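Reminder to self: tokens first, then the designed residues, so the page reads top to bottom the way the pipeline ran.
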């Protein structure tokens, strides 16, 4: 286990390093001068000169990268040019909202996707199998923004059951929070549920034809025990990897969903930063997202290592 962890870290650390170079380099291609933006309407030569020295804009690009990397290694992602607030504080403010949205979306996707995948595999080539595959195809091909708008029209405008937009903290009103988050969570988890269904179905079909499953049936075990205890346990190995990776995708891919439902989360933070040319926030958020995604990849590999005895042998 330790050797496996060291091997994975040996590939992850250089990956994060090259990702940081890419993020910083691409950021320099964006139009606009941070010093002029910060100077505001005044834009006197003294103020601009001071800001350039403070932000190291008068230094060569490699030197500026080293200053930025040194701050990142110390947990300093810079300050927002627009609101003069540390980027780390902004991330800590917005991240819990997106994490809640991603967790709710993941729960919905796991419940729907795995259940539909099991039913589809057990009832292969029946009407239930065809229905599950059609629903999965619909989930994969439906755009999130369109589904979100349709949900708002149906559940908010026509029925009046749920709020069309906005966010309420669960510490203020848990019920209002769940009502505000259930629609965006379902929209975000819809495509993932379809992907999980397809992967679960494929894995279950392979496992259901294995010798140990036939042996369990030959012993007279109940079919539900055979499917859920013997078959599903081994079929979940690739699902664990997919789920861990997709959770990172949910965190970074909630931009459209948060925009449609006006949720003040992580995705909306980076969209606002791009429109306002708040380069420090864009850099910090992308770097943070990339690091989280790579870390989740590592955790997925470790989970796969733990549940698959063949890798430990």
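Designed residues (313 positions):
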């Amino acid at each position: 286990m330790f050797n496996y962890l060291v091997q994975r870290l040996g590939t992850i650390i250089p990956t994060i390093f090259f990702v940081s170079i890419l993020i910083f380099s691409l950021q320099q291609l964006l139009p606009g001068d941070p010093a002029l933006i910060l100077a505001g309407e005044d834009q006197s030569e003294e103020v601009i000169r001071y800001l350039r020295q403070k932000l190291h804009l008068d230094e060569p690009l490699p030197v500026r990268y080293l200053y930025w990397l040194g701050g990142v290694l110390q947990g300093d992602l810079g300050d927002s040019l627009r609101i003069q607030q540390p980027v780390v504080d902004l991330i800590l403010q917005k991240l819990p909202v997106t994490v809640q949205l991603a967790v709710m979306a993941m729960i919905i996707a796991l419940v729907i996707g795995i259940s539909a995948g099991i039913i589809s595999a057990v009832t292969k080539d029946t009407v239930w199998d065809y229905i599950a595959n059609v629903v999965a195809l619909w989930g994969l091909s439906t755009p999130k923004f369109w589904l979100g708008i349709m949900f708002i029209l149906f559940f908010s405008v026509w029925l009046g059951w749920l709020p069309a937009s906005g966010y309420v903290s669960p510490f203020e009103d848990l019920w209002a929070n769940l009502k505000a988050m259930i629609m965006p969570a379902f929209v975000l988890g819809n495509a993932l549920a379809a992907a999980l269904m397809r992967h679960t179905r494929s894995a279950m079909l392979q496992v259901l034809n294995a010798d140990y499953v036939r042996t369990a049936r030959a012993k007279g075990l109940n079919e539900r025990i055979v499917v859920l205890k013997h078959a599903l346990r081994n079929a979940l190995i690739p699902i664990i990897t997919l789920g861990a990776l997709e959770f990172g995708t949910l965190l970074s891919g909630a931009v459209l969903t948060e925009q449609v439902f006006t949720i003040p989360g992580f995705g909306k933070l980076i969209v606002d930063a791009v429109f306002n040319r708040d380069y420090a926030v864009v850099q910090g958020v992308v770097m943070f997202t990339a690091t989280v995604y790579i870390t989740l990849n590592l955790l997925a590999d470790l989970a796969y290592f733990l549940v698959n005895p063949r890798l430990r042998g």
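The mean pLDDT is 79.
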